[in-house]
Specification:
This protein has about 575 residues and is α/β, with parallel strands linked by helices. It has 17 helices and 13 strands. The protein is about 45% helix and about 15% strand. Strands 1, 2, 3, 4, 5, 6 and 13 form a seven-stranded mixed sheet that branches. Strands 7-8-9-10-11-12 form a six-stranded mixed sheet, covered by helices on one side. The protein has two domains: about 10-225 and about 505-515; about 230-350 and about 385-490, Carbon-nitrogen hydrolase (Nitrilase/N-carbamoyl-D-aminoacid amidohydrolase, 4-Layer Sandwich), CATH 3.60.110.10. It has helices at about 10-30, 45-55, 60-75, 80-85, 90-115, 125-140, 165-195, 200-220, 260-275, 300-310, 360-365, 370, 405-415, 435-450, 495-525, 540-545, 565-570, and strands spanning about 230-240, 280-290, 315-325, 325-335, 340-345, 375-380, 385-390, 390-400, 420-425, 450-455, 460-465, 470, 480-490.
Length: about 575
């Protein structure tokens, strides 16, 4: 009998199921984030591929994980095509390259799913920690990392798990989400085995009921998280001025031109001339409200001073400043009500290919489009500390920096009573990028127990409470002013105090689990100093059967649960690996 081309029908069906599971996992993950923004899907998004690759080889599981990651990032980052639309086909090349690279991190996680089978029940700790460690890595490497699409951000809209961010931070919250997915997968895998056996004994009933109970317990764990620190200081009254314009395409979309600067001046002066009550403590113009350096442009500096004098309040202005003839910087400039520069903060984390071009000399020649939108590299800042406004420490970050948890944590530990995100968001256009960016501020508010004022030149601007709820949201390209009254806080959440230790613990568990897998594999192969798994002594029947044919391995015993791959000569057998509490069923 000849097999059909492409392998046996069963193998082709299994490959097709795994392929479908990979695409489904990627699509479900994308749907959990803005734009679809169906956050609860993150509780089950990984389940299809977890079930599909449990009996695969690690390399195969990694390949299907790569497809899942490519699907997720391809959908999640579609706004990049609009962000770089002025480059034509290069925009789609950038979208594809970034999606393809980030998918490698998802592939690494799914390769670990079958690779860790021998750890048994410890996988419920090790695999979530591995996901968190992998996210930590991709958030910081290479070129400063890409902390976008982190799993915890899917919960920005609220829900029972979000309060856990006050204790575990975003990476710990992601680990809990992965644990819920693993428990659901275990339950689904245990159901067929339990249903096929009669009578149902108490151990089998406990397994079938235990997994859902564990999943429910994990989901409800957020209800036990401590409350955010109460407001304990003076109230700070701010006004966010949003005065961006809808421009051309890509980097020119809503770009801060002379008209945008003039709009900020006009709205501020109108507010000052028409207000009859108390003056605000601070007026905020978002990132890039002045693209021409006001410190080197006397006319702009005079107009800023006039606006500050009219409203009788300090102005925190987002500006592009000149560092030297070949470098610019993105800064937040704090002017007094009299128009004098009182303080400044320079953006530290720059966007690759947005604010600088890595290996610019070489890439500029090979791909000229990389320099068309970034004609000069911006210079990064070196220090991160709160700005002092009317006696209150205001933790200020600029745009992209809000995605880095450690920056908000450091500002909070340094005494910031509230957090301020100054951004532009013009390049996102009308796509979900602006909402994805706002989600980072929502997660930061919960983690640090601080109100976050999200001030955008083109929108979305919002005030995010310590519960993560975004209030007073503006529309994209809406010209308006947003008055904000913020209660200043001084207490620290558990994560703000011990966040670095939480993340180190997650990495430690992940590394320890992977090392254990490697050591177990070496031990089984007898490569640890010549000491391997001891073989059982031959039985009398084996001794008597010498010369009568091949002996059963290891005294004729069936392979151990972790030996399914070796026993079958290749493909792991279903049911091998992580055992459910009943001893039946696996991940």
């Amino acid at each position: 009998m000849h097999e059909a081309p492409g392998g046996p029908p069963g193998g082709r069906r299994l490959a097709a199921l795994r392929l479908a599971a990979a695409v489904a996992t990627g699509a479900l993950l994308a749907a959990a984030f803005p734009g679809p923004d169906i956050g609860p899907l993150a509780l089950i998004a990984l389940v299809p591929l977890l079930l599909a690759v449990e009996t695969a080889r690690p390399r195969q599981a990694g390949a299907f994980g790569y497809l899942a990651g490519l699907t997720f990032f391809g959908l999640h980052l579609l706004w990049i095509a609009e962000f770089l639309s002025w480059t034509g086909a290069v925009a789609w090349l950038a979208w594809g390259a970034l999606s393809a690279f980030e998918a490698l991190f998802v592939a690494a996680f799914f390769a670990l799913v079958p690779a860790t089978r021998r750890l048994g029940g410890w996988r419920l700790l090790v695999l979530p920690a591995c996901w968190a460690a992998i996210e930590l890595l991709r958030a910081h490497q290479p070129l400063g990392g890409f902390p976008w699409g982190l799993l915890a951000l899917s919960q920005h809209g609220g829900g029972p798990l979000l309060p856990l961010a006050r204790v575990l931070g975003g990476y710990g919250l992601a680990a809990v989400l992965v644990a819920v997915n693993l428990v659901v997968a275990c339950w689904l895998r245990a159901l067929p085995a339990a249903a096929a056996r009669r009578p149902w004994r108490w151990r089998r009933l406990a397994a079938v009921a235990g997994w859902p109970a564990l999943a429910a317990g994990l989901v409800a764990a957020g209800l036990l998280a401590p409350a955010a620190p109460p407001a304990a200081g003076p109230t700070l009254d701010l006004v966010v001025v949003q005065a961006g314009l809808r421009g051309g395409h890509g980097l020119d979309l809503g770009q801060s031109t002379e008209a945008v600067f003039a709009n900020h001046v006009r709205l501020t002066e109108e507010l000052g001339e028409g207000a009859g009550g108390p003056r605000p403590d601070l007026v905020v113009w978002g990132e890039g409200a002045a693209d021409a350096d006001p410190l080197r442009n006397p006319d702009r500096l005079a107009r800023v001073a006039r606006a500050a004098e009219t409203i009788q309040a300090p102005i925190l202005l987002g500006a592009t400043t000149l560092v030297d003839p070949t470098h610019r910087a993105t800064e937040a400039l704090l002017f007094t009500p009299g128009g004098q520069l009182a303080d400044r903060y320079r953006k530290r984390r720059l966007v690759p290919f947005g604010e600088f071009v890595p290996w610019g000399g070489l890439l500029g020649r090979l791909v000229p489009a990389t320099r068309q939108g970034v004609p000069y590299d911006k210079a990064p800042g070196r220090t991160l500390e709160p700005l002092l406004v009317d006696g209150v420490r205001v933790g200020t970050v600029i745009c992209w920096e809000s995605a880095y948890q450690e920056d908000a944590r450091q500002l909070t530990r340094d005494g910031a009573g509230l957090l301020l995100v100054m951004t532009n968001n013009a390049s996102f256009g009308d796509g979900p990028g602006s909402r994805q960016h706002l989600a980072t501020s929502q997660l930061r508010a919960v983690e640090e127990g601080r109100t976050v004022v999200h001030a955008a030149v083109t929108g979305i601007s919002a005030v995010v409470g310590v519960d993560g709820v975004a209030r007073q949201q503006t529309g994209l390209y809406q010209q308006t002013t947003v008055p904000v009254s913020v209660g200043v806080r001084s207490g620290l959440t558990f994560y703000a105090r011990f966040g670095r230790g939480v993340e180190a613990g997650l990495v430690g568990v992940a590394v320890g689990g992977v090392v254990a897998v490697v050591l177990l594999a070496l031990w089984r192969r007898g490569l640890l100093g010549g000491v391997g798994r001891p073989e059982a002594p031959p039985s009398l029947r084996e001794v008597q059967s010498v010369g009568r044919g091949p002996r059963p391995a290891s005294g004729g015993q069936p392979p151990l649960s972790g030996d399914a791959t070796e026993a079958s000569g290749g493909e792991p057998q279903p049911g091998a690996g992580f055992q459910a509490p009943s001893g039946r069923g696996s991940l």
